[in-house]
Amino acid sequence: MTGFPCFFSLRCRGAALLVALALHSAAAAGGVLILGDSISAAYGIEPTQGWVALMAKQLAPQCPDVEVHNASVSGETTAGGLRRLPALLQQWEPRVVVIELGGNDGLRGLPPERMADNLARMAQLARAAGAHPILLGMKIPPNYGPVYQQRFERAFAQVAADERLPFVDFFLAGIGGDPTFTQADGIHPNAAAQPHLLKNAWNTLAQVLDTAAGCRLGARFDAAQTGSRSDPPEQGLFGAGGFSEERYRPGVNSSARLVTLE
Description:
This protein is an alpha/beta fold. The protein has a single domain, classed as 3-Layer(aba) Sandwich (Rossmann fold), CATH 3.40.50.1110. 42% of the residues lie in helices and 8% in strands. The protein has nine helices and five strands, in the order αβαβαβααβαβααα. The protein has helices at 10-28, 51-59, 78-92, 103-107, 112-128, 146-162, 194-213, 223-226, 256-259, and strands at residues 32-36, 68-70, 96-100, 132-136, 167-168. The protein has a five-stranded parallel sheet with strand order 2-1-3-4-5, sandwiched between helices. Helix 5 packs parallel to helix 6 (146-162). The protein is globular. The relative contact order is 0.15.
């Protein structure tokens, strides 16, 4: 029947649906992918309180088209992240990939050299997919011994240097070990710590997003948008409370419950 309105045609309606889905897919692509462990998965708190959700809120006014995809899993290691990354890159086609992994490798006493290989490979895969990788570094408690501690910290720095990555050397700076900012387990950051986690990473994130997504953030951090009212106090590596043997119990035969950020 000629001249019949297109919206009554199943074929036209189907074509319109396909176009809408394609436009939605194009808009969703090119965002920020967070590949992390329990720290980024908002373990023990509401997901909306986590630093990743706060980052999405912070980005919204100036980067409304940049979606944040949180693929973080509690207990994840660098090996697990490496296995999952290719599918995530294909699914989301991100412009920026934030790698927040390695803490569980250290707490399990895994070889830092293997961790470094995994981190480097993830950065390479992200770049091959057209994304800009960022590395958020971690440190471990001193009772793992100075040799392992130095190998662990050196692994992050070496990967960042070799792969020329934007790098935050200690994502938990000023937070880890301070009871003000940790949950009852003495390890995981609580809701009050989340704005400070975002602040620790913000300058690096903003600079990359300005380049990758044209956000014009200018490394500005708006604490009011995150609910942050004050900076964490000046502290040592593991907070004002210092290191507690009861919080970290490494060992070859230790259970995952004790040595995993989950």
